[in-house]
Amino acid sequence: MSWVLRLGLLLAALIFMASLLFAAGLLLALWLLRALWAKLSGRPVQPWVFKMHRADMWQRAYRATAPGGRDKAPMDVIDAEVKDITDVTDVQEKRP
Description:
Radius of gyration: 30 Å
Order of helices and strands: HH
Mean pLDDT: 82
Number of helices: 2
């Protein structure tokens, strides 16, 4: 029974690896066809990029934390115990 499970897992891993290789080969073929078309048409090859505007991303994150922001949890604290943390007694000085 154990060898059947191992054989099944090996087969699943091989199928998964073959599908990844196929997807990578398909992407490579598309990229090469695109580069060939650009060369035949005399145009420069434009890189495939994902444009991100960092300022827009910052503004979106900043607005989300602003008062009245979207999906904001209430910040009201009802029961809080105040502790004095200025008096530290359990730290011992270590000499090098």
